[in-house]
Amino acid sequence: MRGRSWCQAHDAQGVKNAGPGRIAARVLDAMGKNGLLPAALVQLDVWQALARTGMNTRAPAQLALVLAWATRDQDVGRWSSVWRAALGAVRDHAASSR
Question: Are 86 and 65 contacting, i.e. CB atoms less than 8 angstroms apart?
């Protein structure tokens, strides 16, 4: 921190990965802190499996699940598509980490 006003984590130039994974992770973190993540969603197997993947895989898929959760009964096709995409992300991660 010598010669700097801010630490690397709080310096805008210090953020190396400000992509969609980081943005989604921050949104999910804020939702979790405010109690906005449905408990039934967080208990799903696909959510738990996503928790073991990297941030760039996990966060966008989990955010998509949260956004589709409220209308899962009315728009079953969208929910199914989002759920399958999340499951595919888990499978891709598992295959790439072998």
Answer: yes
For helices 76-96 and 55-69, the axis angle rounded to 10 degrees is 170
* Cα(64)–Cα(51) distance, integer angstroms: 14
Distance CA 45, CA 34 (A): 23
Q: Tell me the one-letter amino acid at 54.
A: G
- Is the pLDDT at 6 greater than 80? The verdict is no
Least confident of 22-26, 38-42, 78-82: 22-26
pTM: 0.81
CB 27 within 8 A of CB 67: no
d(CA 44, CA 72) in angstroms, rounded, equals 14
Tally Cβ neighbours within 10 Å of residue 57: 18
- What number is the average pLDDT over the span 41-49? 96
CA proximity to 96, closest of 38, 44, 40, 56: 56
